[in-house]
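Training component of the fellowship. As part of building independent skills, the fellow (R.M.) carried out the full modelling exercise for a liganded target. The chosen ligand was fe (ii) ion. The inputs are recorded below so that the supervisory panel can assess the work.
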Amino acid sequence: MDFYLINNAFPAQVMVGAGALARLEWDREAGKVLIITDRGLLHTENIAKITRLFPKADIYGELSGEPTSAMVDAALEFSRRSRYDLVIGLGGGSALDTAKVVAALHGSRETVAEVFGKDLLGPRRTRMGLIPTTAGTGSEATPNSIVKDSADGVKKAVISKELIPDWVVLDAELTLSLPAAITASTGMDALCHCVESALSVHANPFSLAYSYHGIKLLSENIEAAVADGADLEVRGAMLLGSFLGGLALTIAGTTAVHALSYPLGKRGVPHGVANGMLLPWILEYNLPACAERLMALAPYLQSVKPLESAADIVDLTFEYVHTLPVPQTLDEVGIEAECLPELAAEAMKQERLLANNPRPLTAVDALALYRKLLAKKSTDG
Ligand SMILES: [Fe+2]
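Fellow's submitted model of the complex:
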């Protein structure tokens, strides 16, 4: 019998449903409250909704793009000018990842660079609530915060159970205004979390339950969410699928898709875009090592064609990126062939993720995979 551990890394309370935020009762009596959000969300209805609940809260809205250690340290410095009882992260993955670190380090003097790694955080004394406004990172479900180190440009992780929030609100109404292209790329990130964790060497029956249901929700709804962003039911399914992806990766981890994605992120390619274009190629690479486990995904994947083999599943993921408004090639995101060896070398530094991959992957393999991303798949015409 397999040996595995089940951790209890799950947010203590989760509220799910369209309009859920207006019904929030947790921590309404909290003393001093800090809301951390993306700059693009300031002056939006989403911020108005949270400030109606916490009218005296301070708002830190200096975040734009994916978080760097300089950005997170600036947010931390802001937070330390006061003594907050509750930190709320509202926004995309950047706002949530920043809020998590701020809540955890608020009472200390450490910088984020000092806690890159696993289990380096002391006990968190500030309560934390997370409210995603995109369906993608699943950050609200994970003990991870991914931050680009401003010193060397490398994306690094802070991993600690202290980053698991006290509560989460999954309110699809907050995601209605997401543009189609961002819905597609963040949705592909969520799908990657579910698929990668399902194929990870650390998958177990519990992570698979999250992965499978997440795959079902995301694959059934991603096209509809892109086509009609105003459909609350579809948006709700995407948000729940993204949350399940976060839970699945917390147990099983992501794999080579995320490992090869990080060097692209370093060069400004949005996280979901990089993952989306890599997913089919990595699955094709992994296929010989995990055909049976790929095939196990078939009942959960939405497909007009019958999925009769693992190769059909790989083809289906190629179809997703062909159909959705996401870039398919490095050319489309401004990455040139000359830098591929550098990308491959950097990807190999993501040892934690590569160790989860079902098929070993060397720098030579990584280079060959990046080369494939230079042109669209030939069968595409
Ligand atoms: Fe991701």
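The panel noted the following from the submitted structure. The chain has two domains: 13-175, 180-380. Residues 137, 189, 193, 258, 271, 275 surround fe (ii) ion (CB under 6 Å).
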